Amino acid sequence: MDIAALVGVISGGFWLLVVATVAFLVVQASRGKPVAKGGLILLVFLLMAIALSTISAGLVFIEPDKRGVVISAVAPKGYREEALTPGLHWIVPFVENVVEYPISRQTYTMSIAPSEGQIKGDDSITARTSDGQEIYVDASVIFAIDPAQVVKVHILWKDRYADELVRAQSRGVIRDVVSQYRVEEVVTTKRFEMAEKLRTTMAQKLNDNGLTLVDFILRNITFSPEYAASVEQKQIAEQTAQQAKFVVEQKRQEAEQARQTAQGAADASVIRAKGEAEARIIQAQAEAQSLELIARALQSNPNLLTYQYITKLSPTVQTMFLPSNAPFVFQLPNSGLNTTTP
What we know:
- By secondary structure, the protein is of the alpha+beta class.
- The chain has helices at about 5-30, 40-60, 150-155, 160-180, 185, 190-205, 225-300, 305-315, and strands at about 60, 65-70, 85-90, 95-100, 105-110, 125-130, 135-145, 210-225, 320, 330.
- The chain has four domains: about 5-100, no CATH class; about 105-225, Tetrahydropterin Synthase, Chain A; about 235-300; about 310-340, no CATH class.
- The chain is about 55% helix and about 20% strand.
- The N and C termini lie far apart (about 150 Å).
- Mean pLDDT is about 85; it is low at about 330-340.
């Protein structure tokens, strides 16, 4: 409890004491037993009560989160131009009084939900976009009274600043800004730009009236049932198109894979054919070289053919060879012996 409130409580106690003293003196007087010096005691209590009441009326304690506007019957303008800051202050008793204003942050919410905003029921802002679509906006304004402009707020708005300034300006600014954008921009590409423009415009409006904007929050944006249905149909169509595109891409990839496989098989066949052809060429070249070597050997040694012939007959030779001048070849008897006669 601050000193001003304490003094007020004490002064109230003295006034009760004065009333009780008066009642006691009256009762005693009615019984014929007046109290000695009762009037003096009553006068002392009365003077103490008046003094304490005067002091209580002159003392004002301002909380740290508030400022006080002094309404004065003795000031030329009817009020003091400087607001009272936190702490204990003295004002002229009974001719001046103080109206306190909070300087802490306050929030004003306008929502479609019945229990979320300052006003019960649907308090969302109905706005129309540049292409004629109707949307519904939920918003919250976080603001505070500028401590240096408390007197100005009192003169312009008194305690009506929340409903008649913050609420009214917010709804008007939202409608004006939304009307500059198409409906698809409001919820996609230009939403942040729109929110920043709302914040800037609203800050200027409040500052002109002694308030400070802390933040302007776009809580939610909803559409009319007709537009919501068209958006849903558009999304379904886009999803269907995306699915069809995916199927086409899948088929294209499958065809590309089949083409690559066929190309690989064809390339493998070509490589294999080239390899076989090169192998045949190498083999033919080897055979040609072999024949050439054989031909050279025969030229230098004609009896080599005879030797090769005999070698091919061994070891199962069953034939008897006669001298080269005998034109006969006789089969050996089937005796199991191989005999060769030169």
